[in-house]
Amino acid sequence: MLYIAPSLLAADFSDLRTEITRVEDAGANYLHLDVMDGHFVPNISFGPGLISSIRPHTNLLFDVHLMISEPLRYVGDFIKAGADIVTFHYESVEDPMATFKAIKQKEIACGIAISPKTPADVLLPFVGVADSLMVMTVEPGFGGQKLIPETLDKVRMLRRYANRRGINLMLEVDGGIGENNASYCTEAGANVLVAGSALFKTKRPRSVMAKMREAELEHPFLG
Ligand code: DX5
Ligand code: ZN
């Protein structure tokens, strides 16, 4: 199954409840929440306060993408705020496996993300271990960028590696994704597509999402 995760970063923040309802009604699976600290990435977005205030207004799973230094220090706050999955960046910590294990002790689904310049090999120890893996298809920090095609080679490599071992990997791609390139992502092996601008900056999110879902029929990710 293909999971679609609208990224709230591209929403109209003056009317979040309406914006979230719109993508939920359009058939989203997750709400992707980009947390940026102005340190790990050169931009600041929002924190647990905003997440807990929207939590009562939607049934979507909260996919919290931590683009912050010291994720372990703050992860508890995001769990309390209502995160269902927390993903931290491989590059943001000294010992990613230790960080992963410490987060798992808090009994939450945990993913690991890599930025475009980080090779996919670093994620191999997490295949079959982490709840999901995320390949960033743009440099983290800003919405509305163009997908970097070479990053999809990493998706392909990780999907093959998992398939050869019979592992049903949740493999997420994030950045610059929309109706015109969703099928490249699923062809490479992604089964979770994050889309900010494509779903929030359109008047017809339902039809964009339907087009994105056609990508699954063209390229079933386990095939
Ligand atoms: C980038 C974020 C993405 C971004 C996606 O740092 O992690 O989730 O908001 O937005 P679009 O789809 O506009 O590239
Ligand atoms: Zn993100």
H/E element sequence: EHEHEHEHEEHEHEHH
The whole-angstrom Rg is: 16 Å
Largest sheet: 8 strands, parallel
Low-confidence stretches: none
Q: Which hetero ligands occur in this complex?
A: D-xylitol-5-phosphate, zinc ion
* CA-CA gap between termini: 12 Å
Number of strands: 8
Short description:
This protein is of the alpha/beta class and about 220 residues long.
Overview of this protein structure:
The protein is of the alpha/beta class. The chain is 34% helix and 19% strand. Strands 1-8-7-6-5-4-3-2 form an 8-stranded parallel sheet. Helix 5 packs parallel to helix 6 (182-188). The chain is globular, with a radius of gyration of 16 Å. Bound molecules: D-xylitol-5-phosphate and zinc ion (ZN). Zinc ion binds at residues 7, 32, 34, 65, 174, 194.
Could you list some keywords that capture this structure?
alpha/beta; 223 residues; binds zinc ion; binds D-xylitol-5-phosphate; globular
